[in-house]
Write a structure and sequence with these properties.
single chain, 341 residues, 2 domains, four-stranded mixed beta sheet, 29% helix
């Protein structure tokens, strides 16, 4: 495989050689070779400043932070912990804190970094507590679709996953993970690529577990998304699908006319029954809805680390059971399913 592109923005972040070895050891098909060979250049093009004008400034903030190695890490903690407060001086902690603030908004978390409480917009630990008991992660190979800054990937490693490949088309999340990994003494077996699911090979049936959390409703064709997820799982592999839902029977689907909770890119919200039916229709088995929870303004809110508008601004101010457009307020279902053995 070709060497990684020698760019400061990618150096030491995407270990192409290790990722290449992991994938080759899992899939022997020759058709994988062209994709693997072109991956460094493809990733490089995805992170060009011409596409993301703030990228050089973000990287400057990351590289300006003190280069300190954490004494230890705890990926199983609710606030993923990197280092301890006494690993750094007060001056170093202040510089690290400012550097992390410079690349906000931080959507997923929380994190604790050298005693710094990084209080993200989402209390992602709440969602993780709902789904972790239903996942079999020990020594598993995992694909995390829409992985964000890697919070869930690190939690999965903390729960015993062998390695995790994360894909997310936003380089901002690559920057966030670069900032976190700057301080980790040994690089975790989490490999993040600034790509979408559709930019992976269509058939890549090597993962024991695939996560798609908060992605389905952004897809124009939900069935295509489900099929793509299924084709990344080995026989008997496990899918965790988490998405917005509405009340109703298996024929109920909300298609917003324009926005949903101020989001333009929301295409469809099925009922739980419809979602289970969709999964069965594309060939999943052992389908079980393991959680249905309303999203509250305590779980998703503005903080010092995400100072823009958040859920409270997107709900009817007089009735939080509705969005500002009059749709049912966000409710999320988590469904477990498997591919046939």
């Amino acid at each position: 495989m070709a060497k990684g592109v020698d760019e400061p923005s990618l150096a030491g972040l995407v270990d192409f050689e290790k990722l290449d070895a992991l994938l080759r050891n899992s899939v022997e098909d020759k058709w994988l070779e062209p994709w693997l060979s072109g991956l460094p250049e493809f990733t490089h093009r995805a992170c060009q400043p011409q596409r993301w004008g703030d990228l050089p400034q973000w990287w400057q903030s990351v590289h300006a932070m003190p280069q300190v190695v954490a004494s230890d890490c705890d990926f199983s903690a609710e606030a993923v912990r990197i280092g301890r407060a006494d690993d750094v001086s007060d001056e170093q902690r202040a510089a690290i804190r400012q550097g992390l603030l410079n690349i906000k908004p931080w959507r997923k978390g929380p994190f604790e970094i050298f005693g710094i409480d990084l209080d993200s917009e989402w209390r992602s630990n709440w969602k993780w507590a709902r789904v972790e008991p239903h996942l079999d992660l020990h020594n598993k190979r995992v694909l995390d679709v829409g992985c964000g800054n890697g919070y869930y990937a690190l939690r999965m490693l903390g729960a015993g996953a062998q390695w995790v490949l994360g894909v997310d088309p936003s380089p901002r999340f690559l920057i966030h993970y670069a900032a976190l990994r700057r301080f980790v003494p040994q690089h975790p077996d989490f490999h993040i690529l600034p790509l979408g699911l559709e930019q992976l090979p269509l058939d890549l049936p090597l993962f024991d577990t695939v996560l798609s959390m908060g992605v389905l409703y952004h897809r124009r064709s939900p069935f295509d998304h489900l099929i793509e997820l299924k084709r990344k799982l080995r026989p008997g592999g496990q899918l965790l699908l988490e998405t917005l839902v509405v009340e109703g029977d298996q024929h109920t689907v909300l298609v917003p006319e324009d926005r949903y909770a101020q989001m333009r890119n929301v295409w469809c919200l099925p009922s739980v029954a419809a979602l289970e039916h969709w999964l069965k229709r594309v060939g999943f088995t052992e389908i079980e809805t393991v959680d249905v929870s309303d999203t509250t303004i305590e779980e998703q809110r503005a903080t010092e680390w995400m100072t823009f508008q958040s859920l409270e601004n997107f709900l009817d101010p007089n009735d939080h059971s509705k969005t500002i457009e009059g749709h049912p307020a966000p409710r999320r279902a988590s469904v477990i399913a498997r591919t046939p053995k």
